[in-house]
Amino acid sequence: MGLKKLHFILVVLTLLFIVPSAYAQDLLARQAPVDKHLRKIDTLALRQVVEREEAQMPASKLYDDWSNKYAHHATELPDSFRINLRGFHMPTESRVVTSNFGARWGRQHKGLDIKVYIGDTIRAAFSGKVRVVRYEAAGYGKYVVIRHNNGLETIYGHMSAWLVQENQVVKAGQPIGLGGNTGRSTGSHLHFETRLCGVALNPALMFDFRNQDVVGDSYMFRKSTYESEGQAANALRGKIGNGGYVASDVRGETIPGGGTVKEASSAKQASKMPHIATEVRYHKVVAGETLYSISKRRGVTVDQLCKMNHITRNMKVRVGQLLRYS
In this structure, are residues 74 and 197 in contact, taking their beta carbons and an 8 Å threshold? Predict the structure, then answer.
């Protein structure tokens, strides 16, 4: 091959390599202003998405961290904060409050104890994200903490089983666990807490377990008054009678004083419900007793006992059973 021909081939190959590279660099240079513009648009869009999410989830403004290690950690409370209660679901169908919020046995009880049986379904009170799923032998037992979109965190304690995992997103009413008697507990029940910025609020400020409802569309939290309001709420929505109960009360099948939960759901029916007072009394069955002997001892008829407890005459009572007699 001649030198001229070889030189020609080398020139052609050089042009084939340089021209596309130069063209590509020129194209990138021309695109640079466009990329900067798109970057600004992307940043603005991302900011708008974040702002929308914060507007829909006030919790993002109240909490600085997300941890799966602790149940609660008190931080600075806002002077006021409106808690949206719409879209709720009662955590249990039970309407029996066995222990109020506040001083108890020389210490502060930070939630409500609701009578449930082992295996009863426990549900998320609001939509949100599961922060903690842990076991605490000397306290909550098997418990779940959920941070909700409305700013609240709810705690569900003493359960027998978990049905969710940490960091799982849940909907209001979704099963999260089963009723139990784990941890520091003297009988099967649900320990239910509502916290704002890690500070315990009386759940009775927002939840009415007797009527299986919330108190309104929202609750306006005020740092200056929430403690006194919590004490007043116990008087309105506190323990049922003297703490007695029967299975139909706990299962949400009937309401004390007669009727059903479904019937009591309307304002007209609810207004007819008698107030539950201290004259509601219960008898604890001991060995050898029958419906007849109990009725004679308590001064009521067998038919009255059956009606108040929703049982039949031929039903055998069991030791330890609680029967309402007034």
Answer: yes
